[in-house]
Structure formats: C-alpha cells, structure tokens
C-alpha cells in the first residue's frame, strides 16, 4: 500500500490520531500535497456512499470528517500560496441549517491564498449574519456561501436574496457545494459559481478584479 493509499484508508476508518502522521509521511515521501488532498476527498466520497447505503451512520461520518480535518491541518502550509497581493476581504460561511464545513474550510484556505483577508462566519449562518458581516468589515469584495445539503439550498437562495436586497454594494456573491449547479447559482442571483476550492479562488480573484 502506498502512503497515499494508507492516508485514504485511515481517513475512511476515522483514525484521526494516525492521519496527521501519515499525511506528513506522504509529504516526506515526495507526494504532491494536492494528490494527498484529492485522496482524502475521495475517502469522504466513499464515506458518503457507505452512509447512503446504510453501512455506516452519522457518528462514523463525523469521525471520518474529524480525521480528514486533522489531515488537512498538516497539508495547509503546503496548499496555501503566499497571499502576497491583497485583493480585499472575503466573507465566507455555510448557509443556515447546514453544518458541513470541510469543503467550506478548503475554499476559505484557497481564497485566502489567492490574496484575500478572510472572515469565516462558520456553519449554520443565517442570511442576516452575512449582511451584518459585510457592514462590519472594510473593503468586502467577495461573499462566499457554501452548502452541502439539498434541503438547505433554499437557505442559500435566501442568503443571496437577503444580501442583494440589503442595498450594500461593492462586492460579488459566489456560491458552491456539492448539490449546487451553475444553473442554480444563476437562478438565485449569485454572481459566480465554483465546483471546487481551487476554482472558487480563481473565480473570487476574477470577480474582485473585474
Ligand atoms: Co453529511 N451529508 N449529513 N455529514 N456528509 C452529505 C453531504 C451527503 C451527500 C451524504 C450522503 O447521503 N451520501 C448527504 C447529503 C444528501 C443531500 O442533501 N443531497 C448528507 C446528509 C444527508 C447529512 C445529514 C442530514 C445526515 C443525518 O443527520 N441524517 C446531516 C445533516 C447535518 C446538517 O448539516 N444539518 C449530516 C451530517 C454530517 C456530519 C456532521 C456527520 C459530517 C460533517 C462534518 C463536518 O463537515 N465538519 C458529514 C459528512 C462528513 C458528510 C460527507 C460524508 C462528506 C462531506 C465532506 O466533507 N466532503 C458527505 C458525503 C460526500 O460529500 N460525498 C455528506 C469533502 C469536502 C472536501 O467536499 O464539502 O463537497 P465538499 O466541498 C467541495 C465542493 O463541494 C466545493 O469545494 C469543496 C472542495 O473542493 N465547495 C464549494 C464547497 N463549498 C463551496 C463553496 C464555493 C465553491 C465550492 O463557493 C462559495
């Protein structure tokens, strides 16, 4: 088994004490940080499948998520750029009713490395909290809303509508997360959509500098 395969297996098994060391070993063995990250994302796909088929339940899903987060902590310095050029502030959060944060945290990391100051509102963020954060921070250029559940897509729609109806200007809203499509993003009035963290950073930069 390669080091990357070991990382993948241990994330799936939720071995959060072992994963950081294995990720470090995979890096030391010369593996590309992005490949290690991709393997962990794949593990979460497997975990999701097992949950769908009733093979595992929420607690197992949670410990796998914890293991992945620990692994991402080790990868962080290797994934982020220097963020040298300052492009403004980005407000980010997972929409109301939704507690998933691994993808949001990766998106935050990548947008930060593209040169933004990040304000992370966490998970289960009500629409009004996004608006208040825009008011509370200087030079907001991007507001990024993440959502992983089909059932919280209406909350994403409400977040975008509330932000747009606030009358505040000078920033763009981007949305993303597994159930979100470019069509849905356009339908709810978002300025941009990205399917993954790397693309979200490119999109944020493109919109902020347009
Ligand atoms: Co949940 N969960 N979960 N879960 N969970 C999913 C999402 C699910 C697909 C699993 C399944 O059934 N196969 C399913 C949703 C089905 C649906 O609605 N379509 C599901 C469900 C049903 C639930 C509960 C309802 C289960 C229950 O209680 N019965 C419950 C809901 C709780 C709530 O939020 N209110 C629940 C709970 C949980 C845990 C808390 C146990 C845990 C989350 C822990 C945490 O995040 N700290 C969890 C987990 C771990 C998952 C899976 C297994 C993994 C999610 C993940 O971290 N993926 C997931 C199955 C899956 O994803 N295949 C599942 C890795 C991550 C890197 O990918 O988050 O997709 P992702 O982010 C990507 C892209 O989506 C994108 O970029 C990221 C990186 O490239 N992206 C953006 C994300 N945000 C973006 C924003 C952008 C742009 C791109 O711009 C702003």
Give a short summary of the structure.
By secondary structure, the protein is α/β, with parallel strands linked by helices. The chain has two domains: 3-83, Methionine synthase domain (Methyltransferase, Methionine Synthase (B12-binding Domains), Chain A, domain 1); 86-209, Rossmann fold.
Task: Summarize the structure in words.
By secondary structure, the protein is an alpha/beta fold. It has two domains: 3-83, Methyltransferase, Methionine Synthase (B12-binding Domains), Chain A, domain 1 (Orthogonal Bundle), CATH 1.10.1240; 86-209, Rossmann fold (3-Layer(aba) Sandwich), CATH 3.40.50. The chain contains nine helices and five strands. Strands 2-1-3-4-5 form a five-stranded parallel β-sheet, sandwiched between helices. α8 (182-187) links the parallel β4 and β5. The longest helix has 22 residues, at 58-79. The radius of gyration is 17 Å and the shape is globular. 40% of the residues are buried. The structure holds CO-5-methoxybenzimidazolylcobamide (B1M). CO-5-methoxybenzimidazolylcobamide is lined by residues 41, 44-45, 47-48, 51-52, 58, 61-62, 65, 97-104, 106-107, 144-146, 148-151, 174-179, 194, 196-197, 200. GO terms for molecular function: cobalamin binding; metal ion binding; methionine synthase activity. Keywords: Cobalt, Metal-binding. Residues 1-87 form the B12-binding N-terminal domain. Residues 87-210 form the B12-binding domain. This is Cobalamin-binding protein.
């Amino acid at each position: 088994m390669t080091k990357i395969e070991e990382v993948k297996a241990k994330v799936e098994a939720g071995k959060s004490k072992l994963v950081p060391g294995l990720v470090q070993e995979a890096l030391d063995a010369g593996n590309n940080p992005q490949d290690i990250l991709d393997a962990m994302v794949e593990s979460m796909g497997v975990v999701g499948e097992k949950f769908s088929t009733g093979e595992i339940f929420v607690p197992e899903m949670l410990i796998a998520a914890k293991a992945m987060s620990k692994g991402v902590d080790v990868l962080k310095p290797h994934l982020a750029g220097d963020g040298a050029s300052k492009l403004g502030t980005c407000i980010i959060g997972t929409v109301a009713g939704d507690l998933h944060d691994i993808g949001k945290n990766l998106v935050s990391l990548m947008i930060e490395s593209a040169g933004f100051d990040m304000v992370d509102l966490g998970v289960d963020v009500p629409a009004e909290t996004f608006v208040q954060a825009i008011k509370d921070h200087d030079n907001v250029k991007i507001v990024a809303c993440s959502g992983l559940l089909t059932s919280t897509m209406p909350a994403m729609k409400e977040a975008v509508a509330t932000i747009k109806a606030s009358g505040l200007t000078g920033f763009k809203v981007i949305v993303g997360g597994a159930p979100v499509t470019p069509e849905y993003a356009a339908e709810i009035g978002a300025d941009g959509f990205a399917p993954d963290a790397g693309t979200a950073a490119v999109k944020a930069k493109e919109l902020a500098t347009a």
